[in-house]
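Sequence only, no structure available. Ideas?
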Amino acid sequence: MSFVGMFVPETEKKSEGIWAYGKSDNLPNQLLAKIADSGIATRCVGKLTEYIASDGFTDKAAAGLQVNPSQTADELLQEQANYAAYFNGAAFHISRKADGTIGEVKAVPFQCVRRKIGGDYLVNLTYGQTKFDKTKGKEYPKYAGPQLDISKLSTPEYKDGEILYVYRKTAANAQYPIPDYYAGIEDIETSAEISKYDLETVRNGFATSGIFTIVGDVDDETEDQYGKTEMDYIKEGLREFTGQEKNSEGLGGRKKSGATRWRKTPRDGYRDWETDRKSTRLNSSHRL
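Reply:
I predicted one. C-alpha cells follow.
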C-alpha cells in the first residue's frame, strides 16, 4: 500500500487538467461513506461541527449580515462548519458587485471541488454520485481578494465568480486537506463492522451464521489434471470466508455475498467443492 497515494494526492490527471483527490480521485466521498457507516464516527463529526460553529459570530452585525439571498453570515458558518468537521476545509463561491467588491458568498459542497493544475478550480456536483458526468464540470478562477479590478469583471474568466478554497496546508497535504482521523480510518471501519456483526447476531437469535461440514476423508495427496488435490479445492473455497483483505500470511479475499450452502459435485473422478449463495438482509454485506 502506498502512503503517498493515500495521504498526499500529488497525482496529476493530465487528461482533465486537475490534481487527483486521493488515489481514485474520490477520497472525500469515501470518507463520507465510512463515517456514515459508523454511528460513533457520525456522532463525533456532529460534536465537532457544534464546536466549530459554536454560538456563531460574536459581533451581532456580522452575524446578521446577508451574505446571499437565503443565508446570513451565521447561517453560512453553520453550514460550512460541517464541511470543516468532515474534511478540515471549506469552499466558497464568490460573486462580485459592479464595483469589484464582494457581492455574495455561498457554500460549495467541498467534496465536489478539484484543484486545477494551473491553480484554478473545477466544480462538478456529480463527484461521488452513481453516475459521474464529466460534462457537468465548471471551471472557476481562484479567489482574487476583497477587491477585483473592474476591468476583469466582464472577462470570461471572472464573469461566473470565483472559488475560495480554505484549508490548513501541511507537509502531508500540499493540494488538498487530509483529515487527522484518516490516520485511524481502520478504527472507524472496525466500529461499523462490529455494529453490523452485533445486529446480525441478535437477528439470528445468537445462533451461528453458518456451519461447514466435510463428510468423509479428504484426499490431500492425489492431484488432478490441474495439479490440485481435493484438499486444495476445499482450501480455495474456505478462503472466501476469511476476510475482505489479506492477513499477514497472505490469505483472505472474502467474496461471500450471503449465507452459503456447500455441496460436492464429481469432476474427473474427484470431488469439486462449490458454493450456492442465498442473500439475507445482513449477510449480503457482512461476513460469516
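The longest helix spans residues 185-203.
Hope that gets you unstuck.
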